[in-house]
């Protein structure tokens, strides 16, 4: 974790590990819910977001970035974490917002995009006015009042109409025009395989973006342990350092790591849900470490639904990943599988922000 990340991360901001373990049980549970591990890929993507952010003041064109990954990979957590490090600054007259983050409504339209952005700015009249009037207000907020440098839009796949799997070109064109008009740096975030199609289907929008950054799940490949298994075990080791438990849990031990991987399939949101629940169970029993029993119960309580069909990996012999993969339910292919007009080369693998109200905007 970089010094800057550590400075802003709430799990590192106030307490040392020794102080953390002396907290009351409710405080330790709150600690567990907010802990985040800043691993190398997370750091690389965060630094690219920061580059886009800082280039706003000097770049001739908007600095844009596309971040994709499967559901649960931690995309929203990453961009939310970045946004939270740049909170609004309230002055006597206005509220300045260097970073604005919003979730794209489904299905995306010009009207609900404008509403979402106005709401993210804290406009109490976000739903009022015609489309043209709201667009005028938005442009004024971004360029003249709030001094917005970076716009983050999550759930880019909502630009795809689920009924007919067509890209919603009207909304896409509006976004392209808005970014060019305001010259704001823009980070688009969405599901891998769908978000790229949205950008590629609009050549003028696609020209602003390079190859997407991919926040991929961890892998477990015995033929490539350095690039897969070891990275996952390092992540577990760093995660354990954040746990408010006084005794070691040895999560990075090969056998425990294998069981954890089988439980989460390398998906961070699953892994964090598992470890958080196991820690909750341990603290409830006044136990200062995690063991297979706590992890087994946590799997049943938090992941059995998402990982339906696989046996509890914390019970009995070590799980067989090949068998698990073989029996894994196949996802139904989407109807929309054509690439857009601006096909790109193979991509490289590289909490909502505060909601303070704007004050006296006019």
Describe this structure in words.
By secondary structure, the chain is an alpha/beta fold. It folds into two domains: 40-212, Rossmann fold; 218-327, no CATH class. It contains 15 helices and seven strands. Strands 4-5-6-1-7 form a five-stranded parallel beta sheet. A two-stranded antiparallel sheet has the order 2-3. α8 links the parallel β5 (150-154) and β6. α12 (254-264) crosses α13.
Structural class based on helices, strands and sheet pairing: alpha/beta
The CATH class of the largest domain: Alpha Beta
What overall form do the CA principal axes indicate? globular
CATH superfamily of the largest domain: P-loop containing nucleotide triphosphate hydrolases
Q: Specify the number of helices.
A: 15
Summarize the structure.
The protein has helices at about 5-10, 15-20, 25-35, 40-55, 75-85, 110-120, 130-145, 170-180, 195-200, 205, 230-240, 255-265, 270-285, 290-305, 320-325; strands spanning about 65-70, 90, 95, 100-105, 150-155, 185-190, 215.
């Amino acid at each position: 974790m970089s010094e800057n990340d550590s400075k802003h991360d709430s799990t590192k901001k106030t307490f040392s590990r020794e102080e953390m373990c002396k907290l009351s049980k409710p405080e330790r549970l709150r600690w567990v819910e907010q802990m985040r591990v800043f691993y190398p890929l997370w750091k690389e993507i965060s630094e690219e977001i920061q580059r886009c952010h800082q280039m706003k003041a000097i770049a001739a064109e908007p600095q844009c970035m596309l971040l994709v990954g499967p559901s649960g990979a931690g995309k929203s957590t990453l961009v939310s974490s970045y946004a939270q490090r740049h909170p609004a600054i309230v002055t006597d007259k206005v509220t300045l917002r260097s970073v604005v983050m919003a979730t794209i409504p489904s299905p995306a339209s010009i009207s609900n995009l404008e509403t979402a952005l106005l709401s993210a700015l804290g406009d109490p009249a976000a739903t009022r006015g015609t489309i043209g009037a709201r667009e005028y207000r938005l442009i004024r907020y971004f360029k003249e009042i709030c001094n917005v440098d970076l716009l983050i839009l999550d759930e880019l796949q909502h630009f795809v109409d689920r009924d007919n799997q067509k890209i919603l070109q009207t909304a896409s064109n509006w976004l392209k025009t808005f970014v060019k008009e305001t010259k704001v740096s823009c980070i688009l975030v969405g599901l891998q395989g769908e978000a790229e199609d949205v950008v590629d289907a609009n050549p003028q929008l696609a020209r602003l973006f390079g190859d997407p950054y991919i926040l991929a799940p961890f892998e477990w490949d015995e033929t490539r342990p350095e690039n897969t298994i070891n990275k996952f075990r390092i992540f577990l080791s760093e995660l354990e350092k954040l746990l408010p438990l006084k005794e070691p849990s040895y999560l990075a031990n090969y056998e425990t790591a294998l069981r954890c991987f089988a439980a989460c399939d390398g998906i961070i949101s699953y892994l964090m849900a598992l470890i958080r629940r196991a820690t909750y169970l341990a603290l409830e029993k006044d136990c200062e470490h995690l063991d297979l029993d706590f992890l087994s119960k946590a799997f049943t309580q938090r992941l059995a639904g998402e990982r339906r069909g696989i046996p509890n990996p914390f019970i009995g012999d070590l799980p067989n990943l090949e068998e698990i993969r073989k029996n894994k339910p196949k996802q139904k292919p989407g109807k929309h599988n054509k690439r857009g007009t601006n096909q790109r080369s193979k991509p490289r693998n590289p909490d909502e922000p505060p909601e303070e109200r704007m004050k006296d905007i006019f």
